[in-house]
Amino acid sequence: MPPWQNRKGIRPLTINPRFPRKEHYVVIIIMKHPTTPQERDDITQHIAGVRTLLEESGFRATVSQGVDLAVVGAVGKLEPEQAEALTHRISAMSGVQSVRRVSTPYKLVSREYRSAPTLIPINGVKVGGNQVVVIAGPCAAESPEQLRQTAAAVKACGAHAFRAGAFKPRSSPYSHQGLGEVGIVLLGQLRIESGLPVVTEITRIDQLSLLVEKADVLQVGMRNMDNYELLRALARTSKPVLLKRNTAASLDQLLQAAEYVVRGNGQVILCLRGIIGLQGLETRAQADLDAIPLLKAKTHLPVIFDPSHAAGRADLVTPLSLAAIAAGADGLIVEVHPDPANAISDNEQQLTFAQFGVLMRGVKAVAAAVGRTV
Ligand code: PEP
Ligand code: MN
């Protein structure tokens, strides 16, 4: 035994066995393009072979079969050396053209994992496709009449879904905190009467069963983007989730938050709503319009924009909405109120019905200019 091993305070360097050496990996395998009838016959078998090996290594694999290209995407957890060995084994398999291994803090939400856009159906419309989807309604549910009038007005202008909060996270404990369960019951009635799907915010796990029953889309507000327990609970539902970017979060942090949900529930709509800007800005937040094309490149999930909370003022809501659609947003979530000046929350940013009509006309024109429908 070398003498240094006995010296007090010095021991050989060992790796802590509890240190998690396993990492998540995404493996993307591009299969060879078959050119002869024999190769075309063989390729199915080759894909099956790749898939079996991945699954035996504990990976979840999906096959995307295009007209002349097949791609196998898989996600799983291995020690780095094992991942290296698996990559080599796959590269040597028949029919494999190339293998790429990616280790990022998010996997399932990445474009590498799934190249086709994810479409999220809400009633009849699909978010994430060619159609621009507009969600509109008041900041907070205030009364049956306020909800009814707003739903009728936004529907008449062409909105596809209704928004209103009943559990309101407010910066001040003295501000109106929302109607709570009473508000959710009102929204449940409105959903049936108006025929519009309802988007509403969840702030705590114990609201889940009520909201799953009464709403169509569960909104996670920017303050809860980092509430991992809530995100894990949402992964156990099959309701679409509208996840808002925290004003201080990077895009990778937003995607990691989405990954928590997507591990169990693939129906996540990302929502940008402005980020912290310079002090003394004239707006509530800095409109993060650059994040629209950036996110669309990083993820297959739909990306929508909230001009109301980004601007914090009604006069900027329409120009920002049009810019967002031009930049490639899959939709908008906009605050609209019958009498914004007397709204119980966010009264400077909510649009009147007439202003919303103007917004919708602009959205239709810009959407048409970029080859999309509304
Ligand atoms: C809202 O949409 O009403 C809301 C509170 O949004 P955010 O979480 O973006 O502040
Ligand atoms: Mn609001």
Layout: helices, strands, pairs:
Layout: E1 23-31, H1 37-56, E2 60-65, E3 70-78, H2 80-91, E4 96-102, E5 120-122, E6 125-127, E7 133-137, H3 144-156, E8 161-163, H4 181-194, E9 198-201, H5 208-214, E10 217-220, H6 228-235, E11 241-244, H7 251-262, E12 268-272, H8 291-298, E13 303-305, H9 307-311, H10 317-326, E14 331-335, H11 353-369
Parallel strand pairs: 7-8, 7-14, 8-9, 9-10, 10-11, 11-12, 12-13, 13-14
Antiparallel strand pairs: 1-3, 1-4, 2-3, 5-6
Helix pairs in contact: 3-4, 4-5, 6-7, 10-11
This protein binds phosphoenolpyruvate and manganese (II) ion.
Mean pLDDT: 92
What is CATH's topology name of the largest domain? TIM Barrel
Strand content: 15-25%
Largest sheet: 8 strands, parallel, barrel
Oligomer: single chain
What integer value in Å does the Rg equal?
24 Å
CATH class of the largest domain: Alpha Beta
Present as ligands are: phosphoenolpyruvate, manganese (II) ion
CATH architecture of the largest domain: Alpha-Beta Barrel
Number of strands: 14
The figure for the number of domains is: 2
Q: What would you say this structure looks like, in words?
A:
With 374 residues, the protein is of the alpha/beta class. It folds into 2 domains: 23-102, ACT domain (Alpha-Beta Plaits, 2-Layer Sandwich); 120-369, Alpha-Beta Barrel (TIM Barrel). The chain has 11 helices and 14 strands. The strands form 3 sheets. It has an 8-stranded parallel β-barrel with strand order 7-8-9-10-11-12-13-14, surrounded by 6 helices. Strands 2-3-1-4 form a 4-stranded antiparallel β-sheet, covered by helices on one side. A two-stranded antiparallel sheet has the order 5-6. Helix 5 links the parallel strand 9 (198-201) and strand 10. Helix 4 (181-194) packs parallel to helix 5 (208-214) and helix 10 (317-326) runs parallel beside helix 11. It is elongated and about 70 Å long. The model has no long low-confidence stretch (mean pLDDT 92). The structure holds phosphoenolpyruvate and manganese (II) ion (MN). Residues 139, 165, 221-223, 244, 273, 309 line the site of phosphoenolpyruvate (PEP).
